[in-house]
Specification:
With about 550 residues, this protein is an all-alpha fold. Helices cover about 80% and strands about 0% of the residues. The two termini are about 45 Å apart. About 10% of the residues have low confidence.
């Protein structure tokens, strides 16, 4: 496996920034750009375009994930696919922002919708492969969290710029052309950086071979057994036996890896890949958790500007304080959360961080000035820090567990379906945001808002995301891939790949103790099965 130096991690992180820059503008600034600068009369029109765009991922992301896994299994690489997606992202993004004020809502809807479809096509092609690449090149939970931490640090300054600069321009007395210039300048600059990073990211076909049964020490022995067994069988009988042996485990018990390893010689179809992916019990929990998390994540970014404009009525300069503090907290917590995860586990760490966010939303609801808003907002960023840091860790764990159950790594499918639900949830959250803005009587072109509209902004910014956070906590409480079952998964991987996949000393000690006990049991069974003469010969 490729050694991940700091320099290589930085190059990996740079690629993500182009996608992040454009996606952040779409997820946070585009709605107020359309309602307040372009002059979209019906706010729900924007939300409807975002909602339909989200459903496009039902077809888009999973197919790209399947094709991505298939290409890699046939000896391909992921970087060429990442490179092809970037121009499509840029074209689609420019279509969404290059719309002049004065157009009718139906014209804006069509331009926005087409631009988002093209953007998502390129994003799926690039980011499904990028995230699957990260899961592969960092092959343990701790390596994945450390890689994601460096990736986040690489994006801290550009991420702060893309969060702060649009906020200043969107809350001040700036024109449409000035805001448009900021959007285009920042995005094109980081697109160039990402293209450069692709040339520096390490990739070789060998790094994907560890993700197949052929790299397992048990593979050669098992294949030899299967060859001997199949010598007296026809080819059709052997294929039918392989199909009958396919087993999807939905309980907290792992099958014997040697029983399924021979199945991995044949590629699985798209239908089988979907079936296997959705039958992963831990993955279903991750999907529900991430779907709910997207509601507070999307509203967290989208509604902050509304809160600063109409609830606490802050100036453009003071508006830098809150997102700036949020970015510092999110990134500053990464080293501590990485150590906490190693000691306590991924899920308990996430639950602890999400619990801290609940009083933050309560404070935001009652915020009377920028300082109360700052305190509440800062507490909610603790949940976002855990969300961003451990997202790839959860998906990596799910893929590892599924590999032990099915004999196939499906990083692309897991990442793509996971991404589909994220986009779907983000689209639904954006639609709810615009729907409730209309419901409470918000008017982006007015000089002031009614008390009813201001109350609506408070509810959208606090009550709705807090409900999503509580839902996430309840889902994670019942997440199956933790505790003793998680240990079984790591021990199963250690049997195949060696002790490097055990991330801390406690796991390593427990694994060695388990192997020693198994060795003693085998020796005792051997002694019981031997005659007294054989036992004496063994002693000599």
């Amino acid at each position: 496996m490729e050694e991940l130096t700091l320099k290589k991690k930085i190059h990996i992180g740079l690629f993500k920034q182009a996608q992040y820059m454009m996606s952040t503008i779409i997820n946070t600034s585009l709605v107020i750009f359309y309602t307040d600068f372009i002059g979209m009369e019906n706010n729900t029109t924007y939300g409807l375009a975002i909602l339909i765009y989200g459903f496009w991922n039902a077809v888009n992301d999973p197919i790209f994930g399947y094709l991505s896994d298939k290409k890699v299994s046939e000896g391909g690489l992921r970087k060429p696919l990442m490179r092809k997606g970037m121009p499509l992202m840029l074209i689609g993004f420019l279509m969404t922002i290059l719309v002049p004020p004065g157009w009718q809502d139906w014209q804006l809807f069509i331009m926005l919708f087409i631009g988002l479809i093209i953007f998502d096509f390129g994003k799926a092609l690039s980011m499904v492969n990028y995230q699957a690449y990260n899961i592969t090149i960092a092959d343990t939970p701790q390596k994945r969290s450390k890689l994601n931490m460096i990736v986040s640090y690489v994006g801290f300054i550009p991420g702060a710029l893309i969060g702060i600069v649009p906020t200043v321009f969107l809350t001040g007395d700036f024109t449409y052309r000035q805001v448009l210039g900021v959007f285009m300048g920042v995005t094109i600059s980081f697109f160039i950086i990402a293209r450069y990073s692709l040339t520096k990211m390490p990739e070789s076909r060998e790094m994907y071979e560890k993700g197949t049964s052929k790299s397992s020490p048990k593979y050669d022995t098992e294949v030899k057994k299967e060859i001997n067994k199949s010598e007296i069988k026809t080819e059709e009988e052997t294929k039918q036996e392989n199909k009958n042996n396919v087993s999807i485990n939905t309980d907290n018990e792992l099958p014997d890896y040697e029983e399924i390893v021979s199945e991995t010689n044949e590629p699985i179809s798209l239908k089988q890949s979907f079936k296997h992916t959705y039958k992963s019990k831990p993955f279903r929990f991750v999907v529900v958790y991430r779907f709910l998390a997207c509601f507070f994540q999307t509203i967290y970014y989208n509604n902050l500007i509304y809160m600063m404009n109409w609830v606490v009525d802050t100036s453009p300069i003071w508006s830098l304080l809150i997102p700036g503090a949020g970015g510092l907290i999110i990134n500053g917590l990464y080293p501590y959360l990485t150590k906490l995860r190693k000691r306590n586990g991924t899920v308990p760490t996430i639950i602890r961080c999400f619990t801290i966010a609940i009083p933050g939303y309560i404070i935001m609801y009652f915020a009377l000035n920028i300082w109360m808003l700052l305190i509440g907002y800062s507490l909610t960023t603790v949940a976002l820090s855990a969300l961003y840091l451990f997202d790839p860790v959860l998906i990596g764990d799910v893929d590892d567990e599924d590999f032990l159950n099915t004999g196939h790594h499906k990083q692309g499918m897991f990442v793509s379906i996971h991404g589909f639900f994220i986009t779907l949830a983000s689209s639904a959250a954006s639609f709810l945001l615009t729907y409730f803005l209309d419901f409470f009587g918000y008017d982006g072109t007015a000089n002031f808002q009614t008390p009813y509209a201001v109350e609506g902004i408070r509810i959208i910014s606090s009550v709705l995301p807090m409900s999503a956070v509580i839902g996430c906590i309840l889902v994670l409480k019942f997440y199956p891939l933790q505790g003793e079952y998680y240990k079984k998964v790591r021990f199963g991987l250690a049997d195949i790949y060696g002790i490097d996949v055990l991330e801390n000393k406690n796991l390593l000690d427990e694994y060695k103790k388990k192997k020693d006990n198994n060795s003693k049991d085998e020796n005792q069974n051997k002694m019981h099965s031997q005659s007294p003469i054989e036992q004496k010969l063994d002693q000599h």
